[in-house]
Design goal:
This protein is of the alpha/beta class. It has one domain (16-195): Rossmann fold, CATH 3.40.50. 29% of the residues lie in helices and 31% in strands. It has a 7-stranded mixed beta sheet, sandwiched between helices. A two-stranded antiparallel ribbon has the order 1-2. A hairpin with a 2-residue loop joins strand 8 (180-186) and strand 9 (189-195). Helix 1 (43-52) runs parallel beside helix 2 (70-78) and helix 4 packs parallel to helix 5 (166-176). The protein is globular and about 45 Å long. The protein starts with 15 loop residues before the first strand and ends with a strand.
């Protein structure tokens, strides 16, 4: 069975424009079948973005598992001074993230990468709506690698649904960094901040 967190370059194209409101603005992205949240900005990503709008976002930022680019692109729209890298294992998603970046006048670095396999850089901030359905072993490895790819005093922001393991994820993250906290909760979604 094919999932949005797998890569199938032979997939038949079905491009479409999708529009939604964020912070009172009408946002338009190009999407396709076979990508996460193909029809609109999902609730978890929206909550993560809304929370990030209250934070001090600066420096080198990685949108890990970027999908078509919702989080990274809208973050850069609000914080244009950041240097943004977006990565995903799904090559179609990365192609769309690149196209959507161009639509927003952004020249972001886009990388097809399974986790950090193709990423050597270190970041001030990593943001992610992680692919929970890939399993705890994979996700926890991704969390550990994320901390390894943070600069000193770097920050990792995650959104996880409570019923999809948010509590156990927080417990695990606290073994990596005592400076782990839940900074927002809404409709069963938790926003988790890990300070390196």
């Amino acid at each position: 069975m094919e999932h949005y967190f797998t890569d199938n370059p032979l997939r038949k194209e079905n491009r479409k424009e999708i529009s939604f409101r964020f912070l009172a603005n009408l946002e338009t992205f190009v999407s396709d079948d076979g990508v996460f949240a193909k029809s609109t900005l999902d609730f978890g990503s929206r909550l993560l973005l809304e929370t990030l709008m209250k934070e001090n976002v600066e420096g080198d930022v990685l949108d890990l598992g970027c999908g078509i680019g919702y989080i990274g692109i809208l973050l850069k729209k609000s914080f244009p001074q950041i240097s943004l890298t977006m990565s995903d294992v799904n090559s179609l998603a990365v192609t769309l993230a690149r196209e959507n970046s161009a639509r927003y006048g952004q020249n972001n670095n886009t990388v097809v990468s399974d986790g950090f396999a193709e990423i050597d850089d270190h970041f001030d901030i990593i943001v992610s709506n992680p692919p929970i359905r890939t399993g705890k072993k994979n996700i926890y490895s991704l969390f550990a690698q994320s901390l390894d790819h943070l600069k000193p005093a770097g920050r990792l922001y995650l959104v996880i649904r409570q019923k999809q393991g948010a509590e156990s994820a927080v417990r695990f993250l606290k073994t990596l960094s005592e400076k782990t906290e839940v900074i927002e909760k809404k409709n069963g979604y938790w926003i988790i901040l890990v300070n390196k």
